TrEMBL record:
<protein>
    <submittedName>
        <fullName>Uncharacterized protein</fullName>
    </submittedName>
</protein>
<dbReference type="InterPro" id="IPR036388">
    <property type="entry name" value="WH-like_DNA-bd_sf"/>
</dbReference>
<dbReference type="InterPro" id="IPR036390">
    <property type="entry name" value="WH_DNA-bd_sf"/>
</dbReference>
């Protein structure tokens, strides 16, 4: 049995995003399109029982559904910054537009500045209208009309429809890479909700030569042993695996082993017990074999698999807070507060309650933040502490930001 993802967005984006989701083994998509983003909360409420998670084609329908408090399932949205915005700049330049004078809605100013810096472009004459609670398409249209000398870049289909007859307007569409990143985050969130205590990670590795295997196992904080049929067994835990794979996105050891092996196949299973993890690892390896000679797959429960890319993930410690913030979906000020909290306690773990108090948020919000950091290898779950009441135990985390 697979996992059903509800894909919510305008009709001309839903099919494309859903098709990319269904490339992932074990994923089926329920296509739910709207005529206007304001319809997103009603769509979510009507179909909540039919899905295990929600993927929105952009941040606006996601925020509308979240603010309406109708998200009872894990949810994620496709980020339009980075590669998506860069490709839009190239297109605008080909259309003869001045890309240093744009009017951009929805995206965070920090993300826009970071993308323009990567492209070597100035931002002094870029007008921005970041998404805020209560922002409507009418407000966005009025904002763009006040800067008529600027070409418009919008994330909203309703704004594009309103302005395309009077201004040069380009509507951002999600890139395949951005959809895959959002889907990966969603699948891991859904798995985390269903199985918060899944900590054991087992890997089954097929290679022609053992050269470098012990070194790779040590880098994953694990141990290596011979397995049946010439396969090698790598035993580790969720935290080190998440850290080494950049939040379960890429497996750098794949390309390193492929440099002196024609065949490198890796199957990881993440489970609550060694038996469950081994069963999932077998399934992952079988699916890696079907992909090709060099492939890695991480298998979760509910017949859900994540294909790990072979590109090397840059270490989080070398990235700016802006880059980390985009990766984990938290603001820079929040990350700064978390860094202060870590500095205050040194290497000691903090409870979810302590984190919530330091950030001034509810405990459930703190749990969501810490889960995102854990998936990205920036926090490590160290155990539970009784809350002293009949409520759920307090999870303890060691921050590694």
């Amino acid at each position: 049995m697979g996992i059903v993802i509800g894909v919510v967005g305008p009709h001309d984006l839903v099919d494309e995003v859903a098709a990319t989701c269904e490339e992932q083994l074990g994923v089926s998509a329920l296509r739910l399109d709207y005529d206007h983003e304001s319809q997103a909360p009603a769509i979510v409420e009507a179909h909540a029982a039919s899905v295990e998670g929600w993927l929105f084609t952009g941040i606006v329908p996601y925020m509308l559904a979240r603010d309406a408090d109708v998200l009872s399932r894990p949810a994620s949205f496709v980020d339009y910054s980075g590669a998506t915005l860069l490709s839009a700049l190239v297109r605008l330049q080909h259309e003869g537009q001045d890309v240093t004078r744009l009017s951009i809605d929805t995206l965070a100013p920090a993300d826009i500045v970071a993308t323009f810096a990567e492209a070597g472009l100035p931002t002094e004459e870029i007008r921005t209208l970041p998404y805020r609670q209560g922002m409507s398409s009418k407000k966005a249209v009025a904002f763009h009309r006040r800067g008529r000398e600027h070409a418009v870049v919008t994330c909203l289909s309703s704004v594009h429809e309103a302005l395309r007859g009077e201004m040069h307007v380009l509507r951002l569409a999600p890139s395949v890479h951005s959809v895959r990143v959002a889907l990966r985050q969603l699948l891991l969130s859904a798995e985390g909700q269903a199985q918060e205590d899944a900590q054991i990670a087992l890997g089954l590795i097929e290679v022609e030569s053992e050269e470098g295997l012990l070194r790779e196992a040590a880098a994953l904080g694990g141990t290596l042993a011979a397995f049946r049929g010439g396969t090698h067994l790598l035993v580790t835990t969720r935290g080190p695996l998440s850290d080494a794979t950049g939040g379960f996105s890429s497996l750098p050891m794949l390309s390193r082993l492929a440099s002196h092996n024609q065949v490198v196949r890796v199957g990881f299973g993440l489970g609550r017990s060694a038996a469950e993890a081994e069963s999932l690892a077998r399934r992952a390896l079988a699916r890696a074999r079907r992909i090709g000679e060099v492939a890695a797959v991480l298998s979760l429960r509910a017949d859900t698999d994540i294909v790990l890319e072979s590109v090397t993930a840059a270490p989080a410690g070398g990235k700016s807070l802006n880059v980390i913030a985009r990766r984990v979906g938290l603001s820079v000020p929040t990350l700064e507060k978390l860094i202060e909290a870590r500095a205050a306690v040194g290497d000691e773990p903090l409870t979810t309650r302590e984190i919530a108090e330091r950030l001034g948020v509810q405990q459930r919000t703190a749990r969501r933040m810490l889960h995102r950091l854990e998936l990205s290898g920036l926090a490590e779950r160290t155990g539970n502490l009784s809350s002293g009441s009949s409520g759920r135990p307090l999870t303890m985390y060691r921050l590694t930001l």
